[in-house]
Design goal:
about 475 residues; eight-stranded antiparallel sheet; eight-stranded antiparallel beta barrel; 30 strands
Amino acid sequence: FGSDELILEKAIDNARHVEIQVFADQHGNVIHLGERDCSVQRRHQKVIEEAPSPAVDNQLREAMGAAAVQAASACDYRGAGTVEFLLGADGQFYFLEMNTRLQVEHPVTELITGQDLVAWQLHVAAGEPLPLRQQDVRLNGHAIEVRLYAEDPQQDFLPQTGTMRHWVSPQGPGIRLDHCLRDGLAIGSHYDPMLAKLIAWGANRQQALQRLRRALEELTVLGVTTNQHYLGQILSHPVFARGEATTNWLQSQPISAESAPETRLSLAAMVFHARAARSGDYPASLSHWSNALDQQHHYRLAAADGEEPVDISVRADQSGVYILRYAEQCTECQLTSLSEHLLTYIENGVSTELRYALDGDTLFLQAEGTQLRINNLTYATQQSQDADGQREISAAMDGVIVDVLVSEGDSVSKGQTLIVLEAMKMEHPLKAGIDGTVSSIHIDNGQQVKSRQLLATLRANCEQTSAESLAEANSR
């Protein structure tokens, strides 16, 4: 830019992201409401926030608060503001920026101060003075917030779309849930993928964390893939439990898969069978009656992420006892109740609830804070094993095509980006699954597309060679 000025920035290792909530009115009053720790981040995006920070004591809080108030006063600020700092391991803090608004994580501050900050904004905008002075601010207990996103951690956090098949909010003391979700709601691609904010308050950090873990397990969200299981992994990690997370910690944590599909698939077979058995007009007491002895039903189920199908046999008697067999394993359980979205069963003397939602031959199943989408392939036609899926480029979600990088007839290599799809404020490259040639393109730049819509097809190199050989032979 024609400037010979050199700017140096100090590197701060193992830093925390700590921000101060400030408020200023039109009467010269400026105060702060304590700090929030937002160090649990992925790609510089906050995932979990809490207040107060585990790394801030009263002396440091006073110093950071005074700096934030000074920053707001210096620019004659009005309303709500968030002053963000980096906090080093040595207790030194460094100004990052000031956001001239409330932040997504403001509920944790509301819970520990007992104040409605949105109402404060309206009163200040109306010319009223702040309802508290600095010496009147009291911090009570601890609050932690997690952000529930429509994204798939197993696919590099790719945003997800779909229909909310079943939604149940957790209950209990100290639990707050900010959302606008309901059964049947379409989750599209036009907005940020955040679905809800789940917050827990406790008299201390340990109680808040325990309440949040329980609430996250009880939260039921079926029909759209979310980061629910991933959030549970973070909350259960010893580093987070000790309050030692820094801004680079989450990036180094591996993402574990959800619970073993075979275990859930056997329970899914029970759901499919129980629902089918009770779909008639006859009494529930006759749901498993048969004039054939030892009748056994067979199901072929597969996780929707493309895993190999599993064959499961189901035998049920009139008392609701189910015997489920897959591979060399056998499970026996007692079905005790079944409703549209809830199944209760007893296994080894332990009663367990399963939340589920059915959409044709697709079952959305949730238990212990994990969700699986399971396809019933029992009556599906046998699919060919020639990797057709690699030949078809389909939309990963609803979105708009922002770039088509190839034309029909172009040669492409496996892993090459062919199309760029934009959804939920992010661009997603769609790549070739095989070496080959583009045989057809079905979309144009700027076109809106739906999830799983066919965008382009490829012809493998081996197919092209065979076709050319055949044409040459025919010409002879």
